[in-house]
């Protein structure tokens, strides 16, 4: 989105593993991405925790598929994630989404008050993250998957769908 706010980065994320990583510690550390049109992959390769480089390097990735499927892959997790300190940076893994609304401030008419609404979060149990493991998120069916009025109206989804002829959805 076009809104940058510190709290949005705390509430809007796709994070296979969020921690105080320092990719500049080693020449061998990289953060790379690939987009082939059907999958977008980000890989953190041989990254170290800031100030805890003796713990070893971490290698993991997130793959976002055009189908909505998300896969987190963990190749190298040298220590249990629960041992990573959150004092300098939050330690979390999962998905979160939010949006921000700018409302006029009652005290100062020219200013706007920012309100952030986090509407969905999926937190992974970080005690289960280990080397050579993966987590797959599969999207639930929605009304938007229907391509015609007939399939929409005959759908067994519990969303009370209806077809919009203008949008063809």
Automatic annotation (TrEMBL):
Keywords: Glycoprotein, Membrane, Signal, Transmembrane, Transmembrane helix
Membrane topology, record value: Single-pass type I membrane protein
Major subcellular location class: membrane
Pfam families: PSI
Presence of the UniProt keyword Membrane in the record: yes
Subcellular location: Membrane
InterPro entries in alphabetical order: Plexin_repeat, PLXDC
One GO cellular component, as annotated: membrane
Family per record: Belongs to the plexin family.
Record's protein name: PLDX1 protein
Organism in which the protein naturally occurs: Quiscalus mexicanus
């Amino acid at each position: 989105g076009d809104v940058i706010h510190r709290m949005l980065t705390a509430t809007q994320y796709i994070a296979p593993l969020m921690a105080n990583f320092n990719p500049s510690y080693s020449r061998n550390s990289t953060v790379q991405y690939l987009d082939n049109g059907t999958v977008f992959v980000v890989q953190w390769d041989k990254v170290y925790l800031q100030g805890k480089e003796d713990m070893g390097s971490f290698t993991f990735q997130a793959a976002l598929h055009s189908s909505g499927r998300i896969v987190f892959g963990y190749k190298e997790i040298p220590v249990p994630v629960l041992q990573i300190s959150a004092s300098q940076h939050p330690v979390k893994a999962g998905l979160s989404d939010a949006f921000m609304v700018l409302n006029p401030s009652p005290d100062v008419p020219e200013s706007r008050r920012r309100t952030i609404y986090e509407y969905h979060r999926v937190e992974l149990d970080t005690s289960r993250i280990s080397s050579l493991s993966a987590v797959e998120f599969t999207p639930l069916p929605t009304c938007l998957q229907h391509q015609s009025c007939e399939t929409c109206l005959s759908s067994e989804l519990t969303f009370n769908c209806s077809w919009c002829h203008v949008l063809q959805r």
